[in-house]
Write a structure and sequence with these properties.
Layout lengths: L5 E6 L4 H7 L1 H8 L4 E6 L6 H10 L3 H4 L17 H7 L4 E6 H8 L5 H4 L1 E3 L7 E5 L6 H15 L3 E6 L1 H9 L4 H23 L3 E5 L15 H4 E7 L16 H8 L16
Parallel strand pairs: 1-6, 1-7, 3-5, 3-6
Antiparallel strand pairs: 2-8, 4-5, 7-8
Helix pairs in contact: 9-10
Length: 272
Amino acid sequence: MTTRRLIFVLLDGLSAQTARSCMGYLEGMREAGLIFGGSVQCELPSLSRPLYHCLISGQRPAASGLVHNTHTPAAPHAEANCFEIARDRGLVTAAAAFHWFSELVNAAPFVPERDRLTCDASLPLRYGLFYSRDDYPDPQVFLDAEVLRARHDPRLLLIHCLGIDHAGHLCGHAGAAYRNAAREADMLLARYMPAWLEQGCDVMITADHGMSDDKFHNGTSPEEREVPVYLAGGAFRPDAARAPEQTEWCGTLCEALHLRGHGKALCCEVLR
């Protein structure tokens, strides 16, 4: 059984352009050759729920049929996702995330009284602190994640923040609040990530989609489709030739955890 630990940070709504211009810690680590940094185009439609599912399963929205945000499945989708694969191999999983992840992975619909605090070894996401408000503060999400790490030592941990996306819906891609939300997320990573790396964790950071100047997304513009990718830790090559596409995320994550033979697509270029 693998002893690796992987932290998957999903910064909702973060465009690659904003990451390059506002995230001084991550870009500094990239410039120093300590981590990999790149960008990819998100799949279409550039909406959150379809892209969450794509990232964790490798299934394009057009293939999975999950193509809009209001689609709440009665049960998790049939395609295996990274949390199911990890659970089936005996790994502890956890998430500090928006409640849509609870619906996509564990059970739908989300029932706050039952699902807000999750602790169930039979579920793909065994431990969870799930929130339901778009304005739930990013610092609280990171703190929730650290509580899960301290108490349960997960091998696969999801940290999903909505602060950047929420700011973008209020002011658009060019707005100061959007850029400053990206800066806040970067400073949170500067606070926590050095300890994660020192403890031997691997870290995968990306976004589902970007944001337009119209205060929304779902289109095909570079601001909406181009998203950043940062990879750090012993599993990844800082000089990789390219970033994993969203359909390759699940396979690459599984390979980094030594869950070989799983995941429908794999970006071998980024792995050591």
